[in-house]
Amino acid sequence: MITLGEGRTPLLAAPRLSERFGVELWLKWEGANPTGSFKDRGMSVAVTRAVERGITRIVCASTGNTAASCAAYAARAGIEAVIVVAAGGAASSKLVQVRAVGGRIVEVEGTFSDAYARAEELAGEAGSLLVNSTNPDRIEGQMTAAAEIVEQLGALPDMVTLPYGGGGNTKAYARGFLAASGALPRLHPVESAVRADTVASAIRIVEPIHHAEVAAALEQSGGSVLTVSDAELLDAWKSLRTLEGVFSEPASAAGIAGLARGSANAGERVVCIVTGHGLKDPAAIDR
After folding, report:
1. Percentage with pLDDT > 90 across the chain
2. b vs e for 115-142, b when ≥16 Cβ sit within 10 Å of the residue's Cβ?
3. Span 12-26, mean pLDDT?
4. Same domain, 72 and 178
5. Are residues 30 and 109 in the same domain?
6. Is there a single domain that holds both residue 158 and residue 274?
7. Do 72 and 205 belong together in one domain?
8. pTM of the predicted model, to two decimals?
9. pLDDT confidence band for 91 (50 / 70 / 90)
10. Which residues have C-beta within 8 Å of that of residue 110, sequence separation ≥ 6?
11. Residues 173, 103 share a domain
12. Pick from 112, 137, 162: which residue ends a domain?
């Protein structure tokens, strides 16, 4: 098993934000994972199974968090990591994480979609494997967070909000809740209205790869995509760190921004997925 101790992250009560929104709010603090984001859950499983199949190089396209996770788990496994990023599309501190553990960065002009296309090409070479969320092993690993929430709460929450970039995490949570309890909470993935150049770089993905699976999960759960402005994202980000002491990167406060839209009913038990640590993008404070 290729592991760095991922998973079993805290579920934190958020009393001050609960009072503000009139709900019972909990924060699933995924910034506590080894490289600082939820990506580690899926990467552990994907890299373990890649090594079992004799893979010697893993490849991904990334806005930053997948990059850091891919490089770290490749180093742990003793294999090569190649990270494809769109120029200017990832926070510099996340790329530092890649370089620190020996990952190789390939920069392309364009958007995340262009980076993903190049990653697919590289992953087609002998001995290589793509470890983006289109890899089913990644989704299996990320499903574990939903099971943890059910265990930590002792029940299914009424509603879950989370950032919406490519949609893989929404897909994983839907599958995870169904596997753990046979039912779904109301799911509300939250996206930026300006996907291409949002301040929340982790969800700077114009075309969500998992949009069809997200749509199916929302129809089944009775939820919806919530679209918020960057101003709303930044306000939620500030509230999360100054009212509850949880320092996340901007994208990770998207669930709070969605909650501020009035998506929950009074008294509901709500879980916001806080996907990445603030040290992923510390320069955002100055910006």
Report:
1. 94
2. bbebbeebbeeeebbbbbbebebbbbbb
3. 98
4. no
5. no
6. yes
7. no
8. 0.95
9. confident
10. 86, 87
11. no
12. 137
For residues 77 and 214, membership in a common domain is answered with no
State the pLDDT at residue 201: 87
Domain count, the chain: 2
229, amino acid identity: S
CB 193 within 8 A of CB 230: yes
Using CA atoms, how far apart are residues 132 and 167, in angstroms rounded to an integer? Answer: 12
Q: pLDDT digit string (tens) for 107-140? A: 999 999 999 999 999 999 999 999 999 999 999 9
Which DSSP string do the residues of the chain spell out, in sequence order? ---SS-----EEE-HHHHHHHTSEEEEEEGGGSTTSBTHHHHHHHHHHHHHHTT--EEEEE-SSHHHHHHHHHHHHHT-EEEEEEETT-S-HHHHHHHHHTT-EEEEESS-HHHHHHHHHHHHTSTTEEE-STTSHHHHHHHTHHHHHHHHHHSS--SEEEEE-SSSHHHHHHHHHHHHHHSS-PEEEEEEETTGGG-S-GGG--SS-TTHHHHHHHHHHHT---EEE-HHHHHHHHHHHHHHH---B-GGGGHHHHHHHTT-S-TT-EEEEEE-BBGGGSTHHHH-
